[in-house]
């Protein structure tokens, strides 16, 4: 048994039985037996099941949002936003799956002999989906929706911090028409995830830290399994000297502190041109200081608790390290007293890359702001990282932004925006931020494998 704890109150929400090796083996065997039939099901039926899933999400949005807020600590407005935005993702997959996996005839020769060359896309089989807690609907659906639509079975392990949400997802998919053997939730912590990797699966999709992702990749490599990894980030933003300071500061406060900074694509370090550094810092601190920290079920709350108690110590260590090396604490810097895993929105200036704050993933409501003298220095510092997920530039000059972003080694580039994901664009990464692609048409094809057909009429 393991416990589901409310991170805002530290109260017990539920106790659940974990899957063990035997239960996982039975689940995998059932998925293996059922998957060929699901793959042979007409695509129209699979599309209908996912469409119905989306309708059920909307019909029960308030209940689902409250469950998400209770177990993750996400402010209720943000939980509702995540569920509402799911409709765009679902609509994209419903619209584009058929074309993405349809047969492609690449050659028809009149002969003699008459020759046709064709590509057909077939499902991988069983996909092990080890998902995340920070955006369980977004992150999970990036994998399980295209995997199901393309004919795969899915063994879905939600994070132990979002298990109740994961079980709700499973029930809604089943109610929508996805067979229970085809989508099966796996309940448990990291040990259950390790056991899942031992099962007879064909692909592994993992979202989480680089350290764990590396272990997942090593385990999968021994069996040459298909691997998709969505890992961490230390995402930079550069504020040029021609911006409207107040607007840029407000946008970056949201990019840094939305969901308490617990987003892989949250802004985690800011570089600001020294000509506007003072007014920018002043505006940024004012906006950050106005954020409401508190009960995530309160409609007024902007920043709720962290989902994990252990992360409080990580943030405290980063603050202590930065201050000891000469950083100036402009705002926050401590956890909030009383119940819950709350950390005050924190801003540090006079930072540099000797400090863990500017090098290691924070995953919390904390940001360092460093002055730079020119665009060249900003590019060098943005690239001075082991990660490569997203990067943002704020400037009134689009061509300047594109020149800078073209030189930054990241999977997503933002001009005058940040912390944004679109189902129409590939979600990919560089370096320690991950492997593979989700979202976009390329992300649909992540869950199929091509077969080459050589057809000759004698």
- The N- and C-terminal alpha carbons lie at a distance of 64 Å
- Quantity of strands, as a count: 22
Nearest-integer average pLDDT: 97
- How would you sum up the major sheet? 7 strands, mixed
pLDDT < 50 stretches? none
Question: Order of strands in the sheet with the most strands?
Answer: 12-13-14-11-10-16-17
| Rg from Cα | 23 Å
Summed up, the helix count is 14
Shape descriptor reads globular
Computed structural class: alpha/beta
In helices, the fraction of residues equals 40-55%
What share of the residues does DSSP label as strand, in percent? 15-25%
How would you describe this structure to a colleague?
The structure is a single chain. The protein is α/β, with parallel strands linked by helices and 458 residues long. It is built from 14 helices and 22 strands. The mean pLDDT is 97. Helix content is 41%, strand content 23%. Helix 2 packs antiparallel against helix 4 (76-101), helix 3 (61-72) crosses helix 4 and helix 9 crosses helix 10. It has helices at residues 21-40, 43-59, 61-72, 76-101, 136-149, 163-176, 190-197, 210-221, 245-257, 277-289, 310-324, 375-382, 398-406, 440-445; strands spanning 2-5, 12-16, 104-109, 114-123, 126-130, 153-157, 183-185, 203-207, 226-230, 235-239, 267-273, 328-331, 346-349, 366-372, 387-388, 390-394, 412-415, 427-428, 430-431, 434-435, 437-438, 448-457.
Topology:
Layout: E1 2-5, E2 12-16, H1 21-40, H2 43-59, H3 61-72, H4 76-101, E3 104-109, E4 114-123, E5 126-130, H5 136-149, E6 153-157, H6 163-176, E7 183-185, H7 190-197, E8 203-207, H8 210-221, E9 226-230, E10 235-239, H9 245-257, E11 267-273, H10 277-289, H11 310-324, E12 328-331, E13 346-349, E14 366-372, H12 375-382, E15 387-388, E16 390-394, H13 398-406, E17 412-415, E18 427-428, E19 430-431, E20 434-435, E21 437-438, H14 440-445, E22 448-457
